[in-house]
């Protein structure tokens, strides 16, 4: 296997609190929060590490939160490649009601980043050695970086021979698609926007994704559909995998876990439906844990067997 490099431009510390129920104007007694590293690419790197794939997490970080973020990743055995910023790294808060099972997520917008950081990030990726097999850019852009950053990244990565995977949304996703990354992971709404707009039904996903691929916007489109599973579309065909039925505790990190599962499978030389099965298994496994916790490997392997055995 070759190393994988993940990129997170707006990382966070994820703090998860358990309360019996939310009551206005009252002190809510809770156990001490669980603190995890957060942000799309960081979660992908953590997931890959659990699955036995060497991954380096590249991210912007600053302040005491940035120091703590690196410390936690060091403890988990994940190599950090940090682009320092003067502003404080943000904190995300997840509140889980133990009585109802409801989850509330508070996600600050994060720091404003100097536009010059974009050049620094791309330069360090181009200098990174050994050359990674995959570069996974996942998550939102912080304020200050231009919306075409991911597009510039894809263009630069193509020169290295690495495969670029982009998991973002809005205008940054649209612009990145114009440069043709290897894989995009839109949801139904994002796929509709990439395909030209209009509401999409499930039986229209294949055609819409093929139109995106035909325009050179990606080689592989993986359309996530939450509890309904996912569809993978390439120029050679499409595959749909249903999500296993499990007791869902939290959706935090499920999409990133899905990407980690797919990259793990690709690194093993798997193709087609097997890659999608691995992604759905990892994404579903992440929902089985409370708060900000990602998946357990044993859950992924068990659910992977289920998805492979199920034909539809």
Instruction: Round the Cα radius of gyration to an integer and report it.
Output: 19 Å
Q: What fraction, in percent, of the residue positions are helical?
A: 25-40%
Number of helices: 10
Helix and strand element order: EEEHEHEEEHEHEHEHHEEEHHH
Brief write-up:
The protein is of the alpha/beta class and 312 residues long.
Layout of helices and strands, plus pairs?
Elements: E1 4-8, E2 12-19, E3 34-38, H1 40-50, E4 55-61, H2 63-75, E5 79-84, E6 90-97, E7 103-106, H3 116-127, E8 134-138, H4 149-160, E9 163-167, H5 170-177, E10 183-184, H6 188-194, H7 205-214, E11 220-224, E12 230-234, E13 237-241, H8 254-267, H9 272-286, H10 297-309
Parallel strand pairs: 1-4, 1-8, 2-6, 4-5, 8-9, 9-10, 10-11
Antiparallel strand pairs: 2-3, 6-7, 11-12, 12-13
Helix pairs in contact: 1-8, 3-4, 4-5, 6-7, 8-9, 9-10
What would your notes on this structure say?
The protein has 312 residues and is an alpha/beta fold. The chain has a single domain, classed as UDP-N-acetylmuramoyl-L-alanine:D-glutamate ligase. The protein is 37% helix and 22% strand. It has a nine-stranded mixed beta sheet, sandwiched between helices. It is globular, with a radius of gyration of 19 Å. The mean pLDDT is 92.
Task: Give the key terms.
single chain, 312 residues, alpha/beta, UDP-N-acetylmuramoyl-L-alanine:D-glutamate ligase, nine-stranded mixed beta sheet, four-stranded mixed beta sheet, 37% helix
